[in-house]
Amino acid sequence: MADTDLKVGDIVELVDPDGDFPEPWREHLGKRGVVHWLPDPNDPAHAGHAGVIVTFDDPDFPGVSTPQRHVRKVE
Amino acid sequence: MAGKSIAQSDACLNMFLGTFPTTTQVPATTFVALLTTNPTVDDGTSAVETTYTSYARPSIVSTSVGWNAPANGTGQTRQITNKLSLNFGTAGSGPVTITGFAICKTSGGTSVATAGEIIYWNTLTGGNQTINNTNPVTAAAAALIVNED
After folding, report:
1. Deepest of A37, A55, B34, B137, by most Cβ within 10 A of its Cβ?
2. Chain B residues 82-141 with CB within 8 Å of chain A
3. Are B61 and A47 inside 8 Å of each other by CB?
4. Cα–Cα distance between B130 and A4 in angstroms, integer?
5. What's the ipTM?
6. Phi and psi at residue B11, to the nearest 5°
């Protein structure tokens, strides 16, 4: 199961634990990036959101906004 | 007509009265909704958001990480586009027909039909898109176009 204990700045990789990773992105599975944004638990506008923004050092694929279960922290 | 909501238009116009947009009008993080009915009035209250199984509004940060710099659009317009690829969730039901997108203030707790929730909306380049069960639903970088004329 993807790591949900994330913090901004964590190094993560794209994973597909539930088999629903977007097909157009599959070539990027395993790509490592940096967590840029997580929902603010103190902001009502973010209530219930389970997403994450990850940025990559790749000008052709600079980043994604996707569910947190699609990333895993790299130890 | 696609474009800014009434609230956002007023925020721009109010700059001439010395009142500049605040983070309550364009939050540090916005969320993208997919619409099955586009607004017919600029307060957004006639908009309808899709509800296919596993759908969720992805987030975009209101910085150069989330958006590309302004550039020429069609005709005399200027535009910005999304820098990140967006995942709306692989459909667990369908079919539904998506007619447009909306930049919203909340992650989904507020309906798109609530006045002030939509900051901006637009139709889809290439026309309406049908989503079927099991389809991945994503937007590539630069797929969302926010125009200003």
Report:
1. B34
2. 83-87, 89-90, 105-109, 136-138, 140-141
3. no
4. 32
5. 0.91
6. -60, -40
CB A21 within 8 A of CB A14: yes
CA B55 to each of CA A60, B7, B12, B135: distance values in angstroms, whole numbers, following the listed order:
26, 26, 32, 11
Among all chains, which residue has been given the structure tokens 């209530």?
A47
Instruction: Provide mean pLDDT across the span B120-139.
Output: 92
Q: pLDDT averaged over chain B?
A: 88
User: What pLDDT score does B126 carry?
Assistant: 83
Verify whether the Cβ–Cβ distance B140 to A46 is below 8 Å: no
Q: For residue B112, report the phi and psi dihedrals to the nearest 5 degrees.
A: -60, -20
Residue type, A59: P
Residue B82 DSSP code: B
- Measured at the CA of B58, the angle between CA B56 and CA B61, to 5 degrees, comes to 155
List chain A residues with CB under 8 Å of B141.
Answer: 61-62
pLDDT in tens, B95-117: 999 999 999 999 988 999 888 89
Of residues B121 and B75, more confidently modeled? B121
Strand partners, B118: B104
Q: What's the confidence (pLDDT) of residue A2?
A: 43
Residue of B nearest to A44 (CA): B106
Distance CA B47, CA B41 (A): 9
Reduce the DSSP state of residue B48 to 3 states and report it.
strand
Closest Cβ opposite residue A53 in set B61, B90, B138: B61
